[in-house]
Predict the structure.
Amino acid sequence: MKLLLFPFFLLLSTTANCQQVSANTDIIYLETETYNSLNELTENLKGNYVFVDIWATWCAPCIEQFEQYEAVKKFAKNNGVKLLYISIDRQKHQNKWQKRIEKYALTGYHIIANRNLQKDLWLQIHNQETRVEIPRYLILDKEGKIIIKEAPKPAESATLIQKFEELFSTEK
């Protein structure tokens, strides 16, 4: 019995801040109130490059880009790049948010940013507390720091992949 409880305890401790509600295990929902800064949000992703998509369910250009994600998802999976989707929707739109994620099979980490996380994002992107235009794409280094504040969008997957390959080549 102890052998069964120990792995279960490990599973609980590593997913304590996750709300895994998707049938697709490659889609991970994060708790909105747990993360108040980009640093907190990316703490568990350190050691990996991260492609960040800042979006909202009411943003038509954001949704259009979801249809262009196949090459990005494949590249990310094959090269250890983590995908992080940060929605600026209000929490009351959670059902609509989840339906969009499931519809487009957006593998990776997902969160609806609370006000503190949004303010931190805006400060890190533009040194201001007002919203930036969305969709917005970022690339984070392996320490969780923003290294590209205006990354190519998924429809420009060849250019985006080239950016990552350039980053990989500087490591060698």
About this structure: The chain is about 40% helix and 15% strand. The helical segments are 2-14, 38-42, 60-66, 70-79, 94-103, 115-126, 157-171. Confidence is low (pLDDT under 50) at residues 1-16.
